[in-house]
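Here comes an entry:

___
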Amino acid sequence: MKIQYPGIHAICAADLRQLRRLMPLGRLFGTPPSRLEAVYAELQRAIGEELDYDTERDNLNAFRAHFTGWPGLRIPFAAAELCRPGVLVLEELPGQAMAEVEQAPAEVRQRLAETLCQWLAEQAFGLQRLHTDPHPGNLAWTESGELVVYDFGSVLCLEPRLLAGYVQIFEALRGTSSEALEAGFQMLGGRQPGSMPPHGLYRRIHLMLHPLLQPGAQWEFREAALHQQLSAFDDHDVVGQRILLAAARPANPFRAVRSSAQLFRILFIEMDLLVMSRR
């Protein structure tokens, strides 16, 4: 059961007004005004969505309808007759915390990892929506290897151009030419039309990921050196870092959910990238 604190709408509105007054300070760090406005608008949208329990219930129903019958995945239903303004009542669907998943047998961890990756891909490319708050507190697991997902208060509807951009980047990374990445970057909004493509960055990304994304390639996520290689990128490669991590996900054959810390870092960066590209 989720119950809003009395007056929470007014409290959040006051906090947003204070934040608005502080936003111009971002210009001292060279942040473009348009980017500051985009950040503020996204915060305003996200907070409003989190406080809208009717929208959360609609999101929940959409996910449940799409994933009905999926093996290994459980999503609680909303008890509509008990819901009220500011009150959301869900089915009690217990599960064990992700912090305890290391205690599970290897076959259970493997099943959870596969279900998680399949669910992430299907919600984006099948449902065209994205659960944007998949931190460990919103996920649980059962002893039989089922993945339990909670909290649908933050969901993004994905535009076709974003999905096409991800496909373009994935195909470019599997292909032989790094120059093909430019079209994907353009689709995602990470590149300004008419500006000089950063082909040096593209070559570095392609060299790093091309071998891993070939058909039949197997690699252990926890033992991969991608994060070490990524940390070697300079500050001017921030967009490339985001694209790199987001593009790496489709082919990750996660051997165990014990690597969930790395997985969630990738997911958070990917969500941030999607927010940026929507602006």
